[in-house]
Amino acid sequence: MGRKKIKMEMVQDMNTRQVTFSKRRTGLFKKASELATLCNAELGIVVFSPGGKPYSYGKPNLDAVTERFMRECDDDSDTGGEEEEGKGKSKPKMKKVNERLDCLKREIEAEKKRGEERQAKLESAGDERFEKPVEKLTIDELREYMDKLEAIHGKIQGQANKMQASSCLVFLSGDKASVE
């Protein structure tokens, strides 16, 4: 029996999506381990589950890979000439951090706007069953309502984790720039 080819689109069922995520995450980390072993490569991977939980893999470890990446990025962005000690070096780094922060702020504003638009759509095209008081819903309607709320909660948690991870990286790069 051969493997079944699947379409490359988001899995709709939450349980199936979680199982798919777990299997593919394991496969991804296994391939990363093989790459690191065969090629003596240093690598790091961070993946957020559909529920927003972060998973990471690093060889030798994720902290070392992240530190090296940040150091390499800083080396690439440094200017070539001699500068006064304590002055010119931190300005390009701080400019880069501020640009990233501005970008994140724009992303947050855009996400807020999309959320408001989604909310307006939900309110205007809402399911009439869920407009009545919770006490008057049937068991099946309550389960469906709960599933919808859990799906929305998972999406929100995922976005919050992504934004938190981005802000942590900005914060860490800002600390690094201020230390140097």
TrEMBL record:
Keywords: DNA-binding, Nucleus, Transcription, Transcription regulation. It is found in: Nucleus. It comes from the Eukaryota. GO terms for molecular function: DNA binding; protein dimerization activity. Residues 1-61 form the MADS-box domain. Its main location: nucleus. Residues 72-96 are annotated as: Disordered. This is MADS-box domain-containing protein. The lineage of its organism: Eukaryota, Viridiplantae, Streptophyta, Embryophyta, Tracheophyta.
